[in-house]
Write a structure and sequence with these properties.
heterotrimer; A alpha/beta; B alpha/beta; C alpha+beta; B: alpha/beta; FAD/NAD(P)-binding domain; eight-stranded mixed β-sheet; five-stranded parallel β-sheet; 16 helices; C: alpha+beta; Gyrase A, domain 2; Elongation Factor Tu (Ef-tu), domain 3; six-stranded mixed β-sheet; six-stranded antiparallel β-barrel; 8 helices; about 35% strand; globular
């Protein structure tokens, strides 16, 4: 039994790549170590009657071109936009977010009339940066150190993008990419709560604090998606984030692809300098014309490829690839909706993201704990109750709550996490919520706690890094994952990488998988007809 | 063809003002250099070391003829409390317990970073490029890019990867010794407002490598100021001391001179400000002659000093456990220690264990025992300044005593300057050495800000020449020299 | 301020809402500046007729208003805006505009001088951060007073008669002058300003006097056929008058996501405002450079063949090259012409122009290429708008 393409890992990028390859006529097999599929875009029943999105929990970045190419809506995918959100402040107040522009302005004006009006200009500027970066998401980065025609044409594309901007815009953009989000926000806003709310996207999943230079780019990384053309908006996948990978698996099945769950890969088979298949953990061999790894670059090359088959410089760079995890997660089954006395009854504020960190300084101090090898004593939490909008995930009246937590280090003071550490981490987070929602803990039916340890063990993300590698410039664009290998190839012929370790990086975006498939199809001379280019930015 | 001679006022007789004035006078212009203090030199007095005067400046001003000489380049001694000290001279690290593979690793890293630094050096010497679509600046940029590419494929890839990396990761990826990592972390962040784990910090280290090593001028920094002032006057610069500029004079929407504190008005064809850009735009020019967007952006120039300066006179030469007193003594036990010293400053606090660079002037020029130290990190705007200063001094002296037991008992006079005091004394915005954070978002065409990065300003006939402009500070005179070049080109 | 109900009702109601709601037979509302306002009350054609024939009342409350006070208020406004605010006498109003550093328009609006050190700016968009940034170094206080002022526009040939009947002696009030009157125990400011190009006034008072004012006007104005009008009728009148509106005829530079959308005063025909002699103002250097180098765009009035309004149409040269676009268009009842305001590339102004109109007729679009002629603005400017004392119609 031999395949044209064997994909290791049924995460969203692996499945996206598999779908495109199968639709181009390849015989495709996806092997997945877990008994379920989805990687970090997964929904599972971890408590009777409750569906958990226990890794990624919201969607915006997933490229609409991919949804359309792969007919995901036909295979059941629905994205539901948020309706509101709020930061709860220590003084018993709140700052809410609304979809309606005027309601939002008036809410901001409660905190600062100046900031309320500054927000429009801020949004305009962020949108300008998004417009610049979006055309780059669905392209293979050039290798500036080489002069192949594709590298030169991609460099020229980059040059044209920049050349289309005015001098002032180029300056503004370079500045933005290199600044800290704290400094950037200080130039627009005066109110600490507003700044704390807006800084959130700059630290999510990132081993940086809001005062770290380069954090402004991370904010952009979270703003460059959209929900139905509404740039920067976020939403839920109906049925949980697993709905994305479920739809992908159906799309794959419709295209004749195959998925084998519960079959972990032990080693990539390399013969004569080419990847020819894999050996499974159970000893079985599967042969394939090419192997594509959805695992992160460290796990792929340090864990499943013999070091002798790789150049020393490459191994050194892979070892130095930064995958420090910074996040943890609490997934909570609730007997009833939590009540936050500060929030007006009947408001849409629970139908979106809830934060309890009302200043950037608190976020930065939380980051200082991480640098010291501790989880944050006063963590930042991005709490969501998707069941406020999505009726499918719990019994009526019950709720599922997802709490994304920063910061949690991959190791505690240099040693592995213990169960006691994990429980202390859980209590720290639950107590923070309880402080704003008295009685919250009594409604908790079940909690799944995921520190970087659990994320690595179950999903396979090295050090629990949710982006399969940090999003700093030394690991972006042509530097991602390793300079010279940003084209989804590896030093071994026919071994490819397609996960978030590659350009354009993490988040449930699908672009790495799509771009890898494009390179593979070009390499196989099959053409990329079934693949849309990025929608033009008008 | 002779260039018509212009009347030019240069404000501020710091290293850049002197370099700029001298170059302009050397081209036949009538230059008056006005300085608020009673002696030239400006913030040079803060420094205790220089990477060396920019060779273009030193040559043109013939500083050697005016008596400026240096002691041999200093090696760095990485002080330890309980293990042998390490000595680092260029890329060569040595010391009792250092593993040979670590010595080789440090040498390799130093070599590679020095190659990167050499590739960046041409950028330091140029006027930042224009990015406008018209004109040939893109061609110039492309040529510079190809120049970088000439370092070879492997190096070029590493260069692109490392150009914006943080110093901690760069050091930790290659080195295992905490002290050597600490040196890179310290040198990258000295004079900055960032920690070694802050992205974009390695480029500051490269910038220092591009300038040169650590030199002590014979006779101290005052000798540099004296020689440069003499050389400038020899070229025809009129130096006016004790002349503080109160405001810029503007006529017909052009800079036309300055008004001094005394009320005296000096008129000129051009005014060159070698003081801080923030003070220039916000105070000397003011909002009435600048557009709102520009004036607001000038207020956004980030200038945050995080370095305190300690000067002690001692009753006995200090003994840092046998360290060479003529060295550059570094207390930065690890990259993490530098980061920990940085953490509290983000919240205007004071670190428990500051890190520092120490020199012992008596070991170079003789005289009574003295110690100077640049101590990091210090808050520039704490709520309770007196308490912050007292605590910072106490913690600094504790760290010194730990490394030189018995030093405390020998302290005679103490002068300790926190960033806000440095601002008050030398006019450096926020007490920042570079009159504006030297950070990637304020470098090259963003220094000090878009719209004023090529030494010219939106106000016709007003120019910038200070460390707030490209390529930033340190006692080199590069910014002043570059600015003079821009002015001469415009006058041609 | 602890108004926590905005999430229940995102759009506010103006102080006149009880009356406009009662009159709005069509129940046609639209959002404007965070308020809900009437698009039309019962019949747009009859509402427009009221503007040109009788007296019309339009609720102006959503206009954004900033109060600027302080000893350097005039100096500040000179730095901010294009015209010379120092030359504006107390009790007068002028139409002005302001730009960013690049000389691109941020907004236009009316500036009221209530006292030597007391001004009010009335405009379409919100600018508080810009106004505050511009105030650095000036001794001025700036406050947003949009919600503190209730404003009505009373326009039409009979508007003066209505005001006289209402007991306000406005006969001596010249265009762009204003006067204060006692009303219902408070103060009513009447300015001879408007957005219709006709005889008309704008009335400013405190929100608590809004309903008494409305009731009084409608009571005494009945003999002259006073009528509430909505935004659609006003829009017809303002096109006839050739007036422009931010975000309809130009994109404010502060909101332009696409850099090429911003426009300068030269390009919007507002360069007559620029006082080059008053000293520096924001954008001056960029505008001087533009004056030297020339502008790319021009705002023009078009008279278009036929009677199909050219709303949203693209404009072409005679040879079919795209030359610009229509920003506002209507069949003008007052001039019996097919009018448009348009942005046209300056270099195309010399040759013939045509507009591409898609006319919807019973579900199907008919594509028309109509010849268009550049004509002077305003399209409609009756003598009665300037006559002082105003005529008795």
């Amino acid at each position: 039994m031999s395949y044209d393409a064997l994909i290791i890992g049924a995460g969203h990028n692996g499945l996206v790549a598999a779908c495109y390859l199968a639709r181009a006529g390849m015989k495709v097999c996806v092997v997945e170590k877990n008994d379920w599929i989805g990687g970090a875009a997964v929904s599972r029943e971890l408590f009777p009657g409750f569906t958990y999105s226990n890794c990624s929990y919201v969607s915006s970045l997933f490229r609409p071109e991919i949804m359309r190419d792969l007919e995901l809506p036909r295979h059941g995918l629905q994205i539901l936009p948020y309706e509101g959100g709020a930061v709860l402040t220590r003084n018993g107040g709140y700052l809410a977010m609304f979809r309606d522009h005027d309601a939002n302005r008036r809410e901001f004006a409660r905190h600062s009339p100046r900031d309320a009006e500054a927000y429009d200009r801020y949004s305009r500027d962020i949108l300008r940066f998004c417009r610049f970066i979006r055309p780059m998401l669905m392209r293979t980065p050039p290798d500036p150190s080489r002069f192949r025609p594709r590298d030169l044409s991609e460099l020229a594309f980059l040059g044209r993008q920049i050349g289309a901007l005015s001098e002032g815009q180029i300056a503004a953009m370079v500045r933005f990419w290199t600044m800290s989000i704290a400094d950037f926000l200080d130039e627009y806003f005066e109110n600490p709560v507003i700044k704390a709310y807006l800084a959130v996207s700059a630290i999510i999943g990132t081993a940086l604090g809001p005062m770290s230079p380069g954090s402004a780019y991370v904010l952009l990384h979270h703003y460059m998606g959209d929900v139905d053309g509404n740039v920067g908006a976020w939403g839920f996948a109906r049925g949980g984030m697993g709905a994305i990978t479920q739809a992908l698996s159906k799309s794959l099945a419709a295209a004749g692809g195959e998925i084998r769950a519960g079959q972990g890969v032990d080693q990539v088979l390399v013969e004569g300098g080419r990847a020819v298949g894999v050996v499974l953990a159970n000893g079985d061999e599967i042969r394939a014309r090419r192997v594509i790894s959805n695992m992160d670059v460290k796990r792929t090359f340090l864990g499943h490829v013999a070091e002798k088959d790789l150049p020393g410089d490459f191994v050194k760079r892979v070892r130095a690839f930064k995958t420090r995890g910074s996040s943890g997660k609490l997934n909570i089954a609730l007997d009833a909706a939590p009540v936050f006395p500060a929030l007006p009854e009947g408001s849409p504020m629970l139908k979106g993201d809830l934060h309890f960190t009302d200043s950037m300084e608190r976020m930065e101090r939380a980051y200082d704990d991480w640098k010291d090898g501790q989880f944050s004593r006063d963590p930042f939490q991005d709490a969501m109750i998707p069941t406020m909008i999505d009726p499918t995930m719990t019994p009526p009246g019950k709720h599922f709550m997802s709490c994304f937590v920063q910061y949690a280090p991959p190791k505690i003071a240099g040693r592995d996490w213990t169960d006691a550490d994990r429980d202390a981490f859980r209590d720290t987070c639950l107590n923070q919520i309880e402080a704003y929602a008295p009685g919250f803990k009594n409604k908790v039916l079940h909690v799944e706690v995921r520190t970087p340890r659990e994320l690595e063990a179950e999903v396979g993300l090295t050090e629990g890094n949710i982006f399969q590698g940090e999003l700093t410039f030394d690991q972006l664009l042509f530097n991602r994952p390793v300079p010279g290998y940003a084209d989804y190839r590896s030093p071994i012929r026919d071994l490819w990488i397609c996960g978030s370790s590659t350009h354009p990086g993490g988040g449930v975006m699908g672009a790495p998988g799509r771009n890898a498939a494009a390179e593979i199809l070009r390499d196989a001379k099959l053409g990329t007809r079934g693949m849309r280019d990025a929608y033009p930015v008008l | 063809m002779p260039i018509p001679s212009s009347e030019i006022i240069v404000i501020g007789a710091g290293v850049n003002g002197l370099a700029c004035a001298a170059r302009l006078a050397g081209q036949g212009h009538r230059v008056t250099l006005v300085e608020a203090a009673s002696a030239p030199g400006g913030a040079m007095a803060l420094a205790h070391l220089t990477p060396g005067i920019d060779p273009r400046v030193a040559k043109d001003m013939d500083l050697a003829r005016h008596g400026l000489t240096f002691h041999p380049e200093l090696a760095a001694t990485l002080l330890s409390q309980n293990s042998p000290h390490l000595t680092v001279r260029g890329g060569e690290a040595s010391g009792g317990d250092l593993d040979p593979t670590e010595v080789a690793a440090f040498r390799n890293l130093h070599k590679r970073l020095s190659r990167f630094a050499a590739a960046l050096a041409p950028f330091r010497a140029m006027t930042p490029p224009r990015l406008a679509a018209k004109g040939n600046e893109w061609g110039k940029l492309a040529r510079l890019g190809l120049g970088l590419r000439a370092m070879g494929k492997a190096d070029f890839r590493e260069f692109l990867r490392m150009i914006l990396i943080n110093a901690h990761d760069a050091a930790t990826d290659e080195l295992t010794d905490d002290r050597l990592r600490g040196l890179i972390a310290f040198d990258a962040t000295l004079g900055g407002w960032l920690g070694p784990r802050s992205p974009n910090s390695l480029i500051l280290y490269l910038n220092r490598l591009a300038m040169g090593g650590a030199l002590v001028p014979k006779g101290g920094m005052a000798a540099v100021a004296g020689a440069m002032a003499q050389a400038a006057q020899a070229k025809g610069v009129t130096l006016r001391l004790n002349a503080r500029v109160a405001r810029l004079l503007v006529e017909a929407d052009q800079a036309s001179g300055v008004e001094l504190d005394s009320g005296e008005k000096l008129h000129a064809d051009l005014v060159v400000s070698a003081i801080g850009p923030k003070a220039t735009f916000r105070d000397l020019v003011g909002p009435r002659h600048l557009d709102t967007g520009f004036y607001t952006a000038a207020g956004h120039i980030r200038a945050r000093g995080a370095t305190a300066r300690l000067a002690l006179s001692l009753t006995a030469p200090p003994d840092f456990r046998g360290a060479d007193p003529a060295g550059r003594l570094i207390i930065a036990p690890s990259s993490e220690a530098v980061e920990r010293a940085w953490n509290p400053v983000k919240y205007a606090g004071v670190p428990d264990r500051p890190v520092m660079e120490i020199t012992l002037p008596h070991a170079h020029d003789g005289g009574p025992p003295r110690l100077t130290a640049l101590v990091q990190f210090a808050p520039h705007d704490p709520a309770d300044k007196a308490a912050a200063k007292a605590r910072m001094l106490e913690n600094t002296l504790t760290v010194l005593e730990d490394h030189a037991p018995g030093l405390s008992a020998t302290i005679g006079e103490t002068e300790f300057l926190m960033p806000w005091e440095i601002e008050a004394r030398y006019g450096l915005a926020g007490g920042n050495w570079h009159n504006g954070d030297l950070a990637v978002e304020q470098m090259l065409f963003l220094r000090p800000m878009a719209g004023a990065a090529r030494y010219d300003t939106p106000l016709p006939r007003l120019w910038l020449a200070g460390s707030g402009s490209h390529p930033g500070g340190w006692v080199t005179g590069a910014a002043g020299w570059n600015a003079a070049g821009g002015i001469l080109e415009a006058l041609r | 301020m602890t108004d926590l109900t905005h999430w229940r009702r995102p759009l506010r109601q103006t102080p006149f809402h009880p009356r406009t709601a009662a009159l709005n037979r069509l129940n046609l509302w639209g959002p404007w500046g965070g308020y809900t306002t009437a698009l039309a009350f019962d019949d747009v054609a009859m509402e427009h007729t009221a503007i040109r024939n009788a007296a019309s009342v339009y609720d102006l409350c959503p206009m954004v208003k900033y109060r600027i006070r302080g000893v350097q208020a005039a100096e500040y406004l000179n730095r901010l805006t294009l015209r010379n605010a120092g030359n504006l006498p107390v009790g007068s109003v002028h139409y002005t505009a302001w730009t960013d550093d690049a000389g691109k328009l941020l907004d236009d609006g009316t500036l009221f001088r209530h006292g030597p050190e007391d001004f009010l700016i009335c405009c379409q968009e919100r600018h508080l951060p810009w106004l505050l940034d511009s105030a650095a170094g000036f001794d001025v206080a700036i406050t947003e007073v949009t919600e503190d002022i209730a404003a009505l526009s009373l326009q039409g040939p009979c508007s003066a008669s209505v005001l006289r009947a209402a007991g306000f002696a406005i006969d001596g009030l010249k265009p762009f002058r204003m006067a204060n009157f006692r009303f219902a125990g408070g103060t009513l400011t009447i300015s001879r300003t408007g957005f219709t190009g006709d005889l008309g006034y704008e009335l400013w008072t405190s929100p608590d006097l809004a309903l008494p004012l409305w009731d009084h006007l409608f009571e005494v104005g009945a003999p002259w056929g006073i009528r509430a009008i909505g935004t659609e009728a006003l829009d017809l009148a303002r096109i006839e008058a050739g007036f422009i509106i931010a975000n309809m005829d130009f994109v404010p530079a502060s909101q332009a996501v696409r850099e090429d959308r911003a426009r300068s005063p030269f390009e919007m025909g507002l360069d007559w405002m620029i006082d080059w002699q008053k000293g520096h103002f924001t954008g001056r250097r960029a505008l001087l450079a533009e004056r030297e180098a020339g502008s790319k765009w021009a705002l023009v009035g078009l008279d278009i063949e036929g009677n199909t309004p050219a709303t949203g149409a693209l404009i072409y040269t005679g040879k079919g090259r795209e030359a610009g676009f229509v920003t506002a268009a209507c069949w003008s009842p007052a001039t019996k012409r097919n009018l448009a305001l348009a942005q046209v590339g300056r270099r195309y102004l010399t040759g013939p122009l045509q507009v591409e109109v898609y006319a919807l007729r019973e579900l199907q679009y008919a594509r028309l290429m109509l010849a268009a002629e550049v004509v002077p603005r305003p399209f409609f400017a009756p003598d009665r708008r300037r006559a002082t004392p105003p005529g008795d119609f």
